[in-house]
Amino acid sequence: MNRSNKIFNIFKLSKNKKKDIYIEKLKFNEYDLNPVMSPDTIKYHYGKLAKGYAQRYNDGIGDSDFNEAGVFLHNIFFSQLCSPKRTNKPSGAVLKIIEDNFNSFDNFKEVFKKEAMKIQGSGWIYLSKDGSIKVINNHKIKKDIAFLIDWWEHAWALDYQHDKESYLDNMWRIINWELINNRIY
């Protein structure tokens, strides 16, 4: 089973018995995403907030659907990150989806940013497997995610303060496009 399918499968819960869920271990250390994402952001975002959703879900505290979806989305988000690269462009299946729907990676980034900047408050923005750009308000499990950006304030505020555009501009440097391609299949 490939890694991205594993993420989806840990959320197949029995109606009669709840199973514990977890935030997957990072495949990088807290310094590996610097300067795009600082160690302080990783410690707070992953170490406190993301793990907190799993803990609250497993302890039966708060809204279980919200906490379950929070774990699901953070597992997708963190699994697609890698050390910054000077030039980091998609290839393979994800590039085909992007070019079929946006003509080029540059056009895709422009449209993606425009849609992200329309989000009032917090949420998530993603490229779906069908090539459309979609928004998740709050937390919801979506099975069509190819590429996902966390647009909640905790994802960018420590490093970028009010400058969400720079956060998104820099995120392109730390996306593992090979993993995105595996997620599409």
List keywords for this structure.
185 residues; mainly alpha; minor pseudopilin epsh fold; three-stranded antiparallel β-sheet; 50% helix
Quick rundown:
This protein is 50% helix and 8% strand.
Task: Please characterize this protein's 3D structure.
The chain is mostly helical and 185 residues long. Helices cover 50% and strands 8% of the residues. The protein contains 8 helices and 3 strands. It has a 3-stranded antiparallel beta sheet, with helices on both faces. Helix 2 runs antiparallel to helix 3 and helix 4 crosses helix 5. The termini are close together.
Radius of gyration: 16 Å
- Helical/strand content category: mainly alpha
Proper CATH architecture = 3-Layer(bab) Sandwich
Question: What is the strand content?
Answer: 5-15%
Shape: globular
Mean pLDDT over all positions: 90
Helical segment count: 8
**Main β-sheet description:** 3 strands, antiparallel
Report the order of strands and helices. HHHHHEEEHHH
- CATH homologous superfamily placement: Iron/manganese superoxide dismutase, C-terminal domain
CATH fold name, please? Answer: minor pseudopilin epsh fold
Break the fold down into its secondary structure elements and pairings.
Elements: H1 3-9, H2 39-59, H3 64-79, H4 92-102, H5 105-117, E1 124-128, E2 133-136, E3 145-150, H6 153-160, H7 164-171, H8 177-184
Helix pairs in contact: 2-3, 2-6, 4-5
